[in-house]
Structure formats: C-alpha cells, structure tokens
Design brief:
The complex is a heterodimer. Chain A is of the alpha+beta class. Chain A has 9 helices and 10 strands. Chain A folds into 2 domains: 3-132, no CATH class; 135-267, Alpha-Beta Plaits (2-Layer Sandwich), CATH 3.30.70. Chain B starts with 10 loop residues before the first helix and ends in a 26-residue tail after the last helix. Classes of the chains: A alpha+beta, B mainly alpha.
C-alpha cells in the first residue's frame, strides 16, 4: 500500500513537500535569490512581518551521501546562501545544515514556516538584535613546545642547574638526567599552558562583544592549540581585537590564526 | 593581522560552524530533521574520511611524546594555516 502511494506521487509534488531552511533574516521582503541553493535549488524568502526565512523546496528527506565531494559541495552551498542573506540584509540567524521543515496533517511546509516565524517572532527578533552589526571571527592560538621548552630551560635556575650537572655525567647517566629534565620541562609547560590560556582568554574577551570557547584540536607542524574561540565582534571592537591578536602573535613561541568574517553561527540559540 | 576570509578558510572551519552550530528549532507544528543528530554526523563522517587519512599521513612523522600529550584532543587538520611573520598561508582544503 505505502509503496504504491509513494510511487504514484509525481516527482514535483514530492519535491514540494519540504522546505530546506538556511537562515532567518531581519527583512520582511519576499524575494527570489536565484538558483544558489544546495544542488542548484531555487532559494527564496518566506516573510512574516519584518523577518523572513530563507528556504528552498525539497523532499522530506535529509541530504545524505557517501560521495565526499557531493557532501562537501552541499555544506559549502549552505554556507554560501547564509552568507548571501547575511550580506544582503546585514543580519542572518543561520540554521544547522539539514534543517528541513515538513508538512503535517494540518498545514503544508510553507504554512508551517510562517506559523513558526509568527510563534517565535519575539525570540527571533531578540536574537537578530543581538547579532546585528556584528560578525563572528574564529580565533585560534597555538604554542610551539620546542621553542617554549628552550625558553623555559634557559630562564629557570633549576633547569639550568640540571643542564650543568648533565655535562659532568657519564654518557649513560647523562641520558637519564636528560630524560628527567625533559619531563620536568614538560610538566612545567603544562602548568604554564593554563596561565597562558587564562591570560590570552582575558585579553581576547575584553575586545569581543561575546565569546564562545570551542574544543581545541590537534594542530600540525608540532604545534599545540591553546585556545579555539569564536568571537562575536562589532565594527568598533574589531580593530582592538586585531591589535591584541597581533600582540599575542608576536610573542616568541606563539602564533595566532584568525578566520572571518563569518555569519554568527556560534551566537544563535533556540527558537 | 588580516583575517583569512571564509572562502580561503579550511573545510574544518566551515564544518565546525555549519554542522555543529546554528539555530536549533523547537516547535510542535514543525518537523525538523536537524533535530536528529545522526544526519549531521553522517555528513561529517563522510567528510571526516578524507581528513582522517590526511591526518594519518601527517601523524606518522610526529614525535611520539608530543602525540601522547595530545591524547584526548580532537583530530583535525584545521590548523594548517598558521600566520606568523608573514609566512605563506597554507590551506589544506580550500573551497
């Protein structure tokens, strides 16, 4: 029975049943943004008062694929639509990838979107106001254990004393001493890392409107990631943030990576 | 310091935002498939396939001690573009 029902549907009507939701913007316009969506779908707005949802028509099925290039192109397309809306209207509340609104027994997908916009109007307006005129920047701070170990070894009297002692030892003993010294330095760096984290976090926090701490990741070229932050930054704060990052980047053994401006992916909540 | 524009950022920077973040919908009338975490994970698993292999190749050259210290951290090639002293910006997966 169910199979017959599915088979009898025309491709067009099945395709019309869902709405893929990219973002919500602070504009009440009804516009067609062109075929810029995932898989070249036509993207348009569903307005309610002075806000709108940016959508494309789709079937009620999540986008899934084992084709890496295809999946990658979808994620990039999702971002590009959000970015387009964000640049056009100045604000956009991005949705997670694969947010699809379905019809239900009472209404079709478009009505459901309008009902949702109406129901959550206050929440959405509040969130739009919160991110208005601000952009998200990704800030990652790395430290180089090789460089910082050398600095520590050179500046700590305790480590220097050990270093001197090693020179007087036989080859076998020197090796043991060397290992002991390396472990001590490693332990010391772990303690230091916490101090660096707190110091840099405070300095970056001061120059951002809002901040999110993300999980650190494995870094390349033997570096360690100390901080992985998303910063919501107003135009006024941006130059001050960059100055602070430049100062950290110039410290011996530290480097900073800055990406952006991103739409405020990390600064939207529940609606 | 000039930011790396999103169009030159790595795929990981993008995935972290598009898959893991964004507005979460809560409404009775609306069926949101994004509420099912599996979907995001599926896409990430597919994409992570490339990254893990890349990472594997890179990891072999790593110092054992450094690696032990990093246990518990998430594996990702996201940090492939470090700016320091105007060094060239290297991006693993540009889009």
């Amino acid at each position: 029975m169910a199979t017959t029902e599915v088979a009898s549907r025309t491709e067009t009507s099945a395709k019309e049943e869902g709405r893929y939701l990219y973002c919500v913007a602070g504009a009440g316009e009804k516009v067609n943004l062109g075929e810029i969506g995932i898989a070249g779908n036509k993207v348009y707005t569903v307005p309610h008062e002075d806000i709108c949802a940016i959508v494309h028509n789709c079937s009620i099925e999540p986008y899934q694929s084992h084709d890496q290039e295809l999946a990658k192109s979808w994620v990039i397309a999702h971002h590009k639509v959000v970015d387009t809306a964000w640049k056009r209207w100045g604000t956009a509340l991005p949705l997670s990838f694969n947010t699809i609104i379905s019809r239900d027994s009472k209404s079709n997908a478009e009505q459901n979107i309008q009902d949702w916009l109406k129901q959550k109007y206050e929440t959405l307006k509040r969130q739009i106001a919160r991110v208005k005129g601000k952009a998200e920047y990704g800030v990652q701070v790395f430290w180089d254990p090789k460089v910082l170990a050398q600095t520590l070894a050179a500046t700590s009297p305790e480590f220097r004393k050990l270093e001197e002692e090693i020179k007087t030892k036989s080859r076998g003993l020197a090796h043991m001493y060397r290992q002991k010294l390396e472990n001590l330095i490693k332990g010391e760096m772990e303690i230091k890392a916490e101090e660096w984290f707190n110091d840099f976090y405070r300095r970056i926090r001061k120059n951002a409107d809002e901040i999110r701490v993300d999980k650190t990741k494995l870094a390349e070229q033997g570096l360690h990631m100390l901080l992985n932050l998303s910063c919501l930054v107003s135009e006024g704060n941006y130059p001050r943030l960059v100055n602070e990052l430049d100062a950290i980047n110039q410290l011996e053994g530290f480097s900073v990576s800055l990406t952006g401006p991103w739409p405020p992916y990390s600064f939207v909540g529940i609606a | 310091m000039e930011p790396i524009r999103p169009c030159h950022a790595t795929l990981v920077d993008l995935l972290d935002r598009v898959l893991d973040k964004g507005l979460v919908i809560q409404a009775d009338l609306i069926i949101s498939v994004a509420g099912v975490p599996l979907i995001g994970v599926n896409i990430r698993a597919v994409l992570a396939g490339i990254e893990t292999m890349l990472e594997y190749g890179l990891m072999r050259d790593w110092d054992e001690g450094m690696r032990a210290g990093e246990l518990g951290y998430r594996v990702s090639p996201g940090a492939s573009r470090i700016i320091k002293n105007n060094a060239p910006v290297v991006a693993l997966s540009k889009y």
